Amino acid sequence: MIIFDKENRVFTLHTRSTTYQMKAGRHNVLLHTYYGPRVTEEDLSYLIRYADRGCSPNPPEAGDDRCFSLDTLPQEYSTCGVGDFRLPCVEFALPSGSSSADLRYAGYELRPGKYALEGLPAFFGGQEWETLVVLLEDAAARVRVELYYGVLEEQDLITRAVRVVNQGDQPLSLRRCASLCLDFQRSDLDLITFDGCHMMERCPARAPLRPGVQGVDSARGTSSHHHNPFVILCERETNEDYGLCYGAMLLYSGNFQAAAELSQYDSARLVMGINPWHFSFRLAPGECFTAPEAAMVCSPAGFGPMSRRFHRSIREHLIHDPMAGRRRPVLINNWEATYFDFDAGKLLEIARTAAPLGIELFVMDDGWFGGRCDDNRGLGDWWVNREKLPGGLEALAPQMEELGLGFGIWIEPEMVNEDSRLYREHPDWALKIPRRDPARCRNQLVLDFSRPEVRENVYGQLYPVLSSAPIRYVKWDMNRSLTDVWSAALPPERQGEVYHRYVLGVYEMLDRLRRDFPDVLIEGCCGGGGRFDGGMLYYTPQIWCSDNTDAIDRLRIQYGTSFCYPVSAMGAHVSVSPNEQTGRVTPLRTRGAVAMSGTFGYEMDLSKTTPEEREIIREQTAFFKEHYDLIQKGDYYRLTDPFREGPYTAWAHVSPDRRQALVTVVYGSVRAVQSFLTLRLKGLDPDARYRVSGEERSWSGSVLMNAGWPLPMTRGDYQSLQLYLEAE
Ligand code: GLA
User: Theoretical Cys-Cys bridge with 544: which of 24, 433, 525, 590, CB 3.0 to 4.6 Å?
Assistant: First the structure.
């Protein structure tokens, strides 16, 4: 619910359990007054203190009032160069050559429903949303800034976006344009970021805010393996079930920045948006720029409820699922089974083993096109390699269907190898800086996706391939960071736009793909989880979580990912043991239990499995299908933290009506002498009685949650347990 108090010029945004408030204050400065547990909509600006602070300047309208300073007041959208020295949200490079920004309140608009953003991903929905637009103006710069707020009351979710319009008669440049600003009049907060690297993505890192600026960013052209565009600010004591926390995600797949600053007077500010480094955007008179959407959830009761709010909002209001209401298929992917070394015969051999095991879709990974026999050649040439697949996809896909398997393919549209026809014909289509030899990564270059003709060519190649056969699934990969970013199509003063235009180009092509092939399930991928963000999820309902398929490492990767993103988005496969990345030996049952807490599939040469292993796989696919809704659409509870090196890792999926639950426990390496371990469950109905799989009698939810469940001792490393609970 959005309430505007005209007299006090206060905007209050209520969600089910939180309240967000801002006020057009004195001199039309837009002040942030509150974000936290739900309160009444009275004017909370009494919380703002005014004092004459040394070195904090006063705007001219303040006259001789030395207590009014942009440098000390909590701002709704911070400016720069005119008195606030903390992290700015926006900076204009003006025709005079100066740079600054000074914004004052100029009006508002209330709309039912949810705003949309042209060319950018955004949460969507109907009447369950409300929109507020607050208008700000910089009279000297002749710029209008529109702050958008979308309120999804039921899920405690507030989205934000920003539009900047050049209202002057000369061009100007935007040097930065953040999507989200949160000012707190307190300092005792921790910042949690989700960091890592290729094959170990999204590991939580928590630290108290310290004076100055801290945070994470990406300058790799993707949101990156290294830092995720999702962060949490929380109180010192906050844990899974207790304490105040604020989660903030940016729906953007390129360079981002999430920065927190603790100021001289112990106030904190969080700013999130496109990374200002390498960024500028020129606006001709009348032109506008739209910053990507950000979304926030405040939870007064710990990280668990925060994550579950994000999960549901993302599932229901961000992901366009072509299979909505249907079960997504259990798949087999041939990458770790064959790498580049396959032909139609080999693929069909794997498929023939897969189909009777309950697997439903075959994904042909990298290596089916152009001259792609290894990773040094072929990218950019999107036609079927007839040496490997003599009958083409038009023969292979129906053969798969006859076996009972849908068929999907891997593509990497944004890339090119120099050893390709595309590159030989259009060497200027790769990102390159004049007179510099570009850096190679996996021996490939990046196509300049900011250019429509480049996208058109690639799409023009892919369209006939995707139309040539019944293709049900596409894995869109992207396997290198951007370097040498310079576009031959833009003048020097517009080169600061290339990173962002590249991302817009990717979004445009994904959108086209989604619209032209509405029944195709698209999986995002970026050297594993290098672009696991809300921007991609708008176009690709699932994303390959990591190139690390080791079940024990995956416990950590999937745990970190779950703070923001739902299980149904996390690409996870059972792979061979010893694992290809770590050499670790794990039981097949454990690999299955971990992968089925994601989108679930297999990535191994099934034709080499034993009859016993096939029996286990058959059981796993049947179990997953039986509990699909519970796992994919249930509420997710983290029961332990795998980074704490405890004897086991556990989590639970609980149905929204709390009638069913699936608890998974994965033990670590075994010890001769084991402690008596008791696992306390979460999320159950305390008054219901639950039957536990394999047991004769039932237990009450209150007992299972408070007294707990005795875990058996194990033999052998990395054993696991899945308990299915059903209310009587
Ligand atoms: C990336 C992906 C893998 C696989 C390879 C193919 O690394 O993450 O899953 O598709 O590319 O080259």
Answer: 525
**Closest Cα partner for 418 from 451, 377, 477, 382?**
377
Give 605-649 pLDDT, tens digit per residue.
999 999 999 999 999 999 999 999 999 999 999 999 999 989 999
From CA 436, how far away is CA 433, in angstroms rounded? 5
Distance 405 CA to ligand 1 centre (A): 22
Residues with CB under 6 A from ligand 1: 335, 365-366, 410, 477, 479, 525, 527-528, 544, 547
Using the mean position of ligand 1's atoms as its centre, give its distance from the Cα of residue 78 in Å.
41
Active site residue 533: yes
Q: Which atom of ligand 1 is nearest to the CA of 475?
A: 10
- Best probe residue, ligand 1, of 373, 410, 475 (max atoms within 8 Å of C-beta): 410
Query: Nearest-CA neighbor of 473 among 386, 401, 378, 564?
Result: 401
CB-count exposure of residue 82 (10 Å: 0-12, 13-18, 19+)? middle
Ligand 1: which atom is nearest the Cα of residue 547?
8
- Sign of the CA dihedral running 251, 256, 260, 264: negative
Q: Summarize pLDDT for 524-538 with one digit per residue, the tens.
A: 999 999 999 999 999
- Cα–Cα distance list, 521 to 120, 541, 546, 605, 629 (Å): 20, 7, 19, 23, 18
Tell me which residue of 644, 647, 666, 653 sits closest to 623, measured CA to CA. 653
Q: State whether the Cα torsion 351-356-357-361 is positive or negative.
A: positive
Strands 648-654 and 660-667: antiparallel
**Pocket of ligand 1, candidates 199, 373, 444, 479: which has the most ligand atoms within 8 Å of its Cβ, to mutate?**
479
